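Lab meeting notes turned into a lecture example. A postdoc, R.K., suggested we walk through two folding results consecutively so the class can see how the record format repeats. The first protein's sequence and C-alpha cells come next.
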Amino acid sequence: MKKLVLMAVAVLLVLAVVVAWETTREPPREPLPVNTRMGGDFTMVDQNGETFSSDQLAGQVVLMFFGFTHCPDICPATMARMAQLYKQLEAGGHGDDVQVVFVTFDPERDTPEHLRQYLAWFHEDFIGLTGSDEQVEEIARQYSVVYMPVGEDSQGGTEFAHSDFVYLIDRETRVRKLYPVDADLEEIKDDLRTLL
C-alpha cells in the first residue's frame, strides 16, 4: 500500500512539472519575413583595397549599415552600438557567425586606407566597403538607401543627409529586417538567434 502511495505521489509530481513547463515556456517565434524588394549581388572594394563581392557574405548573418566616416554623429554612434553588440555576441560564442559591414557613400574621402583606420576604432573584424561612384549608387539603390549632399563640412568635404537603418541579412544574403539606429540591442540579438 505504501508503495502505491509513493508511486502516485511521484506521478503527480511529474505531471505537475510537465504542466508548469508547458504553461511557462515561450511560444516559438515566427520566422522573420524575407524582404524581396531589397538586396542583390554587388561588387565593391574592401578596406584592404581588395575586390569584395556579396558572395563573400554568404553563410554569415550580416548587420549592414550605410554611412560616411566624416559623419559627425549618427554614423559613429551607430558603429559604436554595433561594436557593443558584437562584443556581446563574441562573449556568447557567436562572434564568428555574425559580420558587421559598413558601406560608405562618400568614396572620394572614404578610401580603403581611411576605412581601415576608421573601423579600427570599433572592431578589427568589421568590414568596410567603398568603390566607384557607380558602385556606391548601385548598392544604395539595391538597399533603398537615400543619401544626398547638403553642403560642406568644416574640412571642406561633402556633408550628407542620409537614411540610417541597420540591415539584418541572413546566411543566404537576403534582407530580413531593418532597424532604426536606436533599436534595442536585445531585440537585435533575439532576431540574430533565429538566424544563427
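The second example is placed directly after the first for contrast:
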Amino acid sequence: METTAVIAASRQGALKRQLEVVANNLANMSTNGYKSSQMMFVEHIVKSKGGERLISPKLTFARDLATRLDTTDGAIETTGNQLDMAIRNEGFFVVRDPQGNELYTRNGQFRLDTGGQIVNQQGYPLLSTGGQPMTLGPNDAEINIGRDGTISTENGQLGKVRIVRFENPQDLVQTSGALFSSETPAIDIASPDVIQGALEGSNVEPILEMAKMIELHRSYESAKSFIEREDERQKEMIRSLARDA
C-alpha cells in the first residue's frame, strides 16, 4: 500500500473510533450522572521540501492517543424522591458490584431492595464511610439525608454516605453508563455537598454531538472515497505497465 493510502486509512480508522465515542455519548444523553468522552488525536503533518507550505491538508497521518473524560457537572433537577441524591461539585458515590469491586458513579438514583439495602439501579449496594452497605429497617419510613451525606430516619442515624474524589479523574475507566472503576486509590471527601431529592443529569450536549456525528460521517465518506480513487489509480498503473510490456 502506498504512503497516501496508508495515511488515508489511518484517518479513516481514527474517524471510525471517534464515531463510536460520539454514538456512545448520544446513547447516554438521558443517563443520570453520565460523563461524555472525547477522543484525543495526534496528527503527523508532512511539509513540502524547503518550504513551509503543507503538501496538502489531507496528508496527515492520524493516530488516536486516548479517550478524555469530560468531568463537567450535568444539570441538577429536583425529583422529590427520598432516596435520590445529587453531588454538588466534585465527588462520586461508591457502590460494590457482585464480584466485590468498588465502582464509582455520579448517578444518585437509588432505591431499596427486598432486604432494605440502599442500592443503585443495577442492584449494587451504596457504601457508607465505613465501607459497608446501608440497610433500612421495616419501621424506617421518614428518610432524611443531610448535606454531608448522613442518612437518618425517625428511628435514629443510619450512617454517612461515602463520597470520594480522585487526584486525576482521567484515570477513571468507564465500565458501563455512569459507572467507573479506577486502579488509583480513591480519596474520601470529609465534607461533601449532597442534595437529597435531586438527580444530576448527563452532561452530553445532544445538538453539539449530533453536529459532530454529521461532520464525522462526511469526513469518513471522504476518506473512503479517497482510498477507492487511490486503489483505482494503482490498478490503472498496473494495467498500463502490462500493456507496455
